[in-house]
Here is the input.
Amino acid sequence: MPKTKIDVPGEVHFLSILNEYGNLDKTLEPDIAEDVLLKLYHYLLLGRRFDERLISLQRQGRIGTFPPISGQEAAHLGAVATMRPSDWMVPSFRETAAELWRGRTLESVILYNNGYNEGVRIPESSNDLPVSVPVGSQILHAVGLGYAIKYRQKDDVVMTFFGDGATSEGDFHEGLNFAGVFQTPVIFVCQNNQWAISMPRSKQTRSKTLAQKALSYAVPGIQVDGNDILAVYAAAQEAVASARSGEGSTLIECVTYRMAVHTTADDPKRYRTDEEVAEWQKRDPLVRFQKYLKDKGLLTDDGIEATEAEITEKIQNAVDSAEEEMKSLGNPLDMFDHAYAELPPRLIEQREALARELEEIQKESNHG
Ligand SMILES: Cc1ncc(C[n+]2csc(CCOP(=O)(O)OP(=O)(O)O)c2C)c(N)n1
Ligand SMILES: [Mg+2]
Here is the structure.
């Protein structure tokens, strides 16, 4: 059948600057100030150590279920480091290092993972949105914000995060389509960590890349080595500049790996091999960046030790103060707040019944 090839615009490129052996492509090295490079190292390490501490707290029953970020720190940190404070970060649930970079406190993360409302409170000074657990739902919030920014003729941008699994959700496609049609200033950052709980990337889609999915919505898509913080930074910097200047959205697929459990309620040994994990451990973003900074003469063994000590203390202080704060929080009646402007009669009754019960418990403990 005679057909004419349509010249569909768009190509997908892969970006790597600092490879897994720590070798640098000098021609692509982004120009990042020394203090920013060291700050990035601090937050990479903080993300890793805080993760380890949170897992240990969860195992001791001192926090609830928690989704670790180990292995993915560069993929989200490198991206947000290109934003300015007035921009909007719209996270999913696996971007702790980036949230800390944006000003979220360690205490807030601990409170959130213990189920306290206070842990999702965003400071007045920040535009960022809280963690979103329903997979992909935040993408729609992000494009809505992007549309509002454009409507108000501001030059802020929105950066939203999601996983490889989220690209199978309708929300992802609706969001990208909206972004393409309305040219919203939204940067879509997909942390392709190879797994959506036990569902491998290979069963998620037959597409060669996730980045190419953007092309059908007339949005540029790029794939980067997500364990290479310089590549993530460079790609995000370009995407942010483009969005800020009115040229619309970009999808950045960060190829990375979840080195730990999906959440503390998961056992990955049931669906993936130790060999696979070991293979990715060799591509650790932290080790690679550390080598880069050492080669540049910005970091020494003493410097690493000092940063470790500073971080250990920071985390310990946060755990202490969060545990102290939690003693005065946690009124079970709070569960009736925020869902309704006015509680329906059925819930008013339930609230009153619970309040009576709590009073009884209190009385008994006062006497006992
Ligand atoms: C709409 C919806 N469906 C299912 C879930 C349960 N769930 C939580 S995380 C997850 C997998 C998400 O995978 P991915 O998008 O790759 O992100 P990752 O967890 O790997 O960071 C699923 C299915 C959910 N939270 N929301
Ligand atoms: Mg995933």
Q: What stands out?
A: The first strand starts at residue 13 and ends at 15. The chain is about 45% helix and 10% strand. Residues 94, 133-135, 162-166, 191, 193, 195-197, 258, 262 surround thiamine diphosphate (ligand 1) (CB under 6 Å).
